[in-house]
Design goal:
Structural class: mainly alpha
Keywords: Cell cycle, Cell division, Cell membrane, Coiled coil, Membrane, Transmembrane, Transmembrane helix
Low-confidence stretches: none
Mean pLDDT: 83
Radius of gyration: 37 Å
Shape: rod-shaped
InterPro entries: Cell_div_FtsB (IPR023081), FtsL/DivIC (IPR007060)
Number of strands: 0
Number of helices: 4
Protein name: Cell division protein FtsB
Oligomer: single chain
Strand content: under 5%
Helix content: over 70%
Largest sheet: none
Amino acid sequence: MKRIFLIFLVLLNLFLMFRLVMSDQGVFGYLELRKDSARMQQELDQTKVQAEDLSHEIRLLKSNRDYLMDIIRKRMNYLGHDEIVYVFSGPSEDVADQHTGAAPHAGQD
């Protein structure tokens, strides 16, 4: 009887050790959860920093008219009241022909 009880306890211990080490709720599962928790905490910290930056920008947009005008000019390409836009075209054909060695107006007679 003692022998059967001892075998039962040994098998029970082996089963519990297997569950402790190999199952999803065991040591490896715990280590995976810790890794996920650290990754999520890092994402949360980054999100908090982004939220603070956006909050600061919103406060600036509401309170600082110069900052607002600067953002409008940069993001929406607006001009000031007395500003002029100069548009420069790409290199002309004559310049391109000089680089290739061809005459600028060859064969146009």
